[in-house]
Amino acid sequence: MEEYLAELNDAQRAPVLQVDGPMIVIAGAGSGKTRVLTYRIAYLMHKGVDSFNILSLTFTNKAAREMKKRIADIVGSSEAKNLWMGTFHSIFAKILRFEADKLGYPSNFTIYDTQDSQRLIASIIKEMGLDKDIYKYKQVYSRISSYKNSLITVKAYFQNAELVEADAMAKRPRMGEIYQHYVDRCFKAGAMDFDDLLLKTNELLNRFPDVLAKYQNRFRYILVDEYQDTNHSQYLIVRALSDKFQNICVVGDDAQSIYAFRGANINNILNFQRDYDNVQQYRLEQNYRSTKNIVEAANSIIDKNKTKLDKVVWTANDDGPKIIVNRLLTDGDEGRYVASSIFENQMQHQLGNGQFAVLYRTNAQSRAIEDALRKRDIKYRIYGGLSFYQRKEIKDVLAYLRLVINPKDEEALKRVINYPARGIGATTVDKLIVAANHYDRSIFEVIENLDRINLKINSGTKTRLENFINMIKSFQITNETSDAFVLAEMVAKKTGLLQELKKDGTPEGIARIENIEELLNGIRDFVEGQKEVADVRGSLAEFLEDVALATDLDQDTGDDDRVALMTIHLAKGLEFPYVYIVGMEEDLFPSGMSMNTRSELEEERRLFYVALTRAEKQAYLTYTQSRYRWGKLVDAEPSRFIEEIDEKFLEYITPIESYRYKPLIDSDIFGEVDKSKLRLKKPVSGSPPLAHKPTEEQLRKLRKLRPTSSGTTDVSSNTNLFDQDLIPGTAVEHMRFGKGKIIKVEGVGQDKKAEIHFEKGGIKKLLLRFAKLKVL
Ligand code: ATP
Ligand code: MG
């Protein structure tokens, strides 16, 4: 047996060794589904399957990269290079580029991100003179997105009386027209939105049997991770491509299906058997990720769902500590608790930041956590907020680059035609848009032909428009001969973008310049990387595609040691030793917007299952008594999900004693805190301790103490109980380690630490409030 196969248990090895035929692996969290896919690919290659013939679809490109790395370890990196691995969107964007002309698209089509799509929809709504309070552009966007993911084209929409009726009932009778305009405008701009990447792939495979045959022959072996979250459009692509050879392996967990709201369809799992002949079904039951406490607590939660496939998940790992539940007064307190708990764990177990994750239901919750981490000087990284590539200054530079590649790109053009300001006003742009719609041409083409059409634009403006077009054209010429980095640098300078920001001079302006520098560095790395792979000039088009499809996780280089902050949705498939799940409150988690039906509530519960099963060693659940929501302090109630966990897996802390007025702890070294003094046990009978409503006076105090984002008040470090007069050079004695000398002191208040050189024990870093040093 090949050595690597010994790194699998028997149940995992079975689907790896079955080379041919359709198979499905349904198994709980942490049982090695992703590992099975990885090893299966390596095994296929060992069995002589050409790496060009393998297609593997993952939830993030980062997951694909990690799998590829592991496969390269096993089979060698030159072989692994040829594997097609990535998200549905990135793989099919590549295929669409090859085949674009068949669909009437240029191969240099732009990919509109959500913001581009929403801006375009907003402007269509405005141009049609519709009421923007009834036709809310974000809602319209998500309607259109769901049509596309169900393969409902504009034509199909108008033929579907039910849909038309539903929109009319919702007082949006002109939905179909907006949809039509949106599709037309994207097409004219040579742009596809995210959903198009799937929709057009389906169109391609349906309309062109020869193209379908080509890719069926190419992708003889197809593997799909997180199959439970594929939507209808993705499902059809997989089915079409695998139809000929039927070598398809999907893995998933119905208990982790969390994207129904975006059209993911759990029936894809249930129907798999029906779609293929002789499907082999495999189950994995042993969890390798988490402690017994976590695995069993997670089982006890998912057990409450009625709609589920029966599964067993067990682990041979240690019991581990119980899940800690803590009640805090407000979200600010919650942040401080999380930060101080992370800090204590780091001190006790000598851990870096990368071992910790804080998970929340909504992005808005991150702010309080961030404030607290910043105050403690704990480095963190937020995933899924405004990603780097969505920052204004970055999008500005990218818009110029997009125009160079595809001058028809309407959203890019509108973005920069007058930024930095060059005297081309909004009225002029509106006239151009009207003309472009009228002549069915792009705005760029309209400007190129200003002499031939009758537009009321004065000669000064006309010159400015022509200058703009000429500038873009000069960039195009540079792009013919130089690499993407040279061009991007030129764009930053010649367009006046950098000067504009320099003029600004504020700290924000400087930060923006730094971001642009960072972007240029990124482009340089990309170019260098491409040159290594093949002797080519790093193409700008490819860079832009990478950027458009980068999920937020993809920017994680993995080298910096930071606490990870993200929504639970993003955490799928990941694992961390310590996980804090914050905001465990009714109306927040489960979300107030997802409690109308049992199926919505069950999806929230699956989300909780996903959250808890990310933890390897220890999980924390926190909730508050009152929380600022929509700018108001509102009462909160503990989440029903806490109550649903079998009590024997939980340990409750009383919040106030736990950090706010924490007494000196009797412990000889910080590693051995007497926990009984920190935590009060939960009362034996009854449901979880119900939050005591804070008194009016407490609330007043809290509001006063509430830290602002610039962070001024910190109630957790207002104690001087732990301050000792220690400076480097002071001779001290520790009960356990004996005599030593202080080398360095850092931190303040409760966080004050000293690096001490002990005569016998060597150098140690101790938290002073636990260390109880005697000054000699
Ligand atoms: P999820 O449902 O969260 O996506 P999963 O089923 O994909 O989880 P993996 O991520 O593949 O599970 O595995 C979970 C952890 O267990 C990983 O750290 C993996 O390396 C480890 N693991 C899986 N199988 C084994 C094994 N046979 N021996 C040792 N470690 C294993
Ligand atoms: Mg996985």
Automatic annotation (TrEMBL):
Gene Ontology molecular function, alphabetical: 3'-5' DNA helicase activity; ATP binding; ATP hydrolysis activity; DNA binding
Pfam family, one: UvrD-helicase
InterPro entries: DExx_box_DNA_helicase_dom_sf (IPR013986), DNA_helicase_UvrD-like_C (IPR014017), DNA_helicase_UvrD/REP (IPR000212), P-loop_NTPase (IPR027417), UvrD-like_ATP-bd (IPR014016)
GO CC terms of this entry: cytosol; DNA helicase complex
Catalysed conversion reaction: Couples ATP hydrolysis with the unwinding of duplex DNA by translocating in the 3'-5' direction; ATP + H2O = ADP + phosphate + H(+)
Highest taxon of source: Bacteria
Key words, A-Z: ATP-binding, DNA-binding, Helicase, Hydrolase, Isomerase, Nucleotide-binding
Domain (UvrD-like helicase C-terminal) ranges: 292-573
Enzyme Commission number(s): 5.6.2.4
PROSITE patterns: UVRD_HELICASE_ATP_BIND, UVRD_HELICASE_CTER
Family designation: Belongs to the helicase family. UvrD subfamily.
Protein name from the UniProt record: DNA 3'-5' helicase
